[in-house]
């Protein structure tokens, strides 16, 4: 027997690597000593961390979940790689870190070089945008694990921050203001619920349906909106105000994520109507009949990144980043609540 008879095509893997090479190498700078083709990526830490007093490495691993099924259904693979990188950058940003390098992992039932190259090109585009080196990865063809047409996408990021600049700061206190940087849609969470709502209520047209609430967009286009990266906005805020804490609203929504960055015994109140809810979130809530608690526990509902600053810094923060919306405050009660204004 040959390996190809068992469902693994080594020649296709080689072709995929050839197609992605230019995109991957476009993310490399002087700090990358070994990348594509090496058994392990090599990164010159002394060069990348030069001038830092007490550098702390911050790492995170995550995936894009079942958003890959939407991409596969629409045969559009150029966005999920950017989703992956932006999600990872936001996660380490919460602790104050800037990205250094990234590694991706793609698993498929049957390897299509064009598809894989499109995914990795998206990863590379996300890395280039934040000056992050894509120094390695893995493409696995596993026909007995994944269903035909399905794929999985995950990645690991490593960043760095000065120890003195680590977030959250210990001086978060009741009364501090909570600002929100808006999301572009679902980002990379809640897709298992979203797919089921679409399947049940838009069975005929599916992702190609154009509900009036979406203003001409198809449901598929709205669901594939790229997970936004907040690095530039957070850097702009940190340059002018004392940012005390950041919170990336991912799986678990506001209820599970905000407590992760607040001191023990503290909570938050977010004021209903003080930010814009993306049309795709409104659609899923209305059509799916989601209770408020379920919606805010599953979806970001427009709250992409929350920023905690002193109350007296709000005006300065909004001048630096105009789209930062004042949405609530830190409280001395250890719960996260939605309240009326």
UniProtKB/TrEMBL annotation:
Which CDD domains does its entry note? Answer: PurM
Report which reactions are catalysed by this protein.
2-formamido-N(1)-(5-O-phospho-beta-D-ribosyl)acetamidine + ATP = 5-amino-1-(5-phospho-beta-D-ribosyl)imidazole + ADP + phosphate + H(+)
Q: What is this protein called?
A: Phosphoribosylformylglycinamidine cyclo-ligase
Domain of life of the source: Bacteria
| Family, similarity comment | Belongs to the AIR synthase family.
> Could you tell me one molecular function GO term of this UniProt entry?
ATP binding
> Which Pfam families is this protein grouped with?
AIRS, AIRS_C
**What range(s) does the PurM-like C-terminal domain occupy?**
174-339
Q: Quote the pathway field.
A: Purine metabolism; IMP biosynthesis via de novo pathway; 5-amino-1-(5-phospho-D-ribosyl)imidazole from N(2)-formyl-N(1)-(5-phospho-D-ribosyl)glycinamide: step 2/2
Organism equals: Chloroflexus aggregans (strain MD-66 / DSM 9485)
Q: Which gene encodes it?
A: purM
Where is each PurM-like N-terminal domain found?
55-161
Which EC class is this protein assigned?
ligase
Which BP terms in the Gene Ontology apply to this protein? 'de novo' IMP biosynthetic process; adenine biosynthetic process
């Amino acid at each position: 027997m040959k390996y190809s008879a068992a469902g693994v095509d080594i020649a296709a893997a080689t072709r995929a690597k050839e197609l992605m090479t230019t995109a991957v190498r476009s993310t490399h700078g002087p700090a990358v000593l070994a990348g594509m083709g090496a058994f392990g990526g090599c990164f010159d830490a002394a060069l990348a961390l030069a001038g830092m007093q007490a550098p702390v490495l911050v790492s995170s691993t995550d995936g894009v979940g079942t958003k890959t099924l939407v991409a596969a259904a629409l045969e559009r693979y150029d966005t999920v790689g950017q989703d992956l990188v932006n999600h990872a950058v936001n996660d380490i940003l919460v602790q104050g870190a800037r990205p250094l390098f990234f590694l991706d992992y793609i698993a498929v039932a049957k390897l299509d070089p064009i598809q894989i190259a499109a995914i990795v090109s998206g990863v590379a585009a996300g890395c280039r945008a934040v000056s992050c080196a894509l120094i390695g990865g893995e493409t696995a063809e596993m026909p007995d694990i994944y269903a035909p047409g399905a794929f999985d996408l995950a990645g690991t990021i490593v960043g760095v921050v000065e120890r003195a600049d680590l977030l959250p700061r210990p001086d978060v206190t009741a009364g501090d203001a909570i600002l929100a940087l808006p999301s572009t849609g679902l980002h990379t969470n809640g897709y298992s619920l979203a797919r089921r709502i679409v399947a049940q209520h838009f069975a005929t047209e599916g992702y190609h349906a154009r509900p009036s609430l979406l203003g001409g967009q198809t449901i598929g286009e709205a669901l594939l909106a790229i997970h936004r990266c907040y690095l530039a906005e957070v850097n702009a805020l940190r340059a002018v105000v004392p940012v005390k804490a950041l919170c990336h609203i991912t799986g678990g929504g506001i209820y599970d994520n905000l407590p992760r960055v607040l001191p023990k015994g503290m909570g938050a109140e977010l004021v209903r109507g003080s930010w814009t809810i993306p049309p795709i979130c409104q659609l899923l809530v209305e059509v799916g009949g989601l209770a408020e608690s379920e919606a805010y526990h599953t979806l970001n509902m427009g709250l992409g990144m929350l920023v905690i600053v002193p109350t007296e810094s709000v005006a300065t923060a909004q001048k630096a980043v105009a789209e930062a919306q004042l949405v609530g405050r830190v409280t001395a009660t250890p719960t996260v609540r939605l309240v009326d204004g």
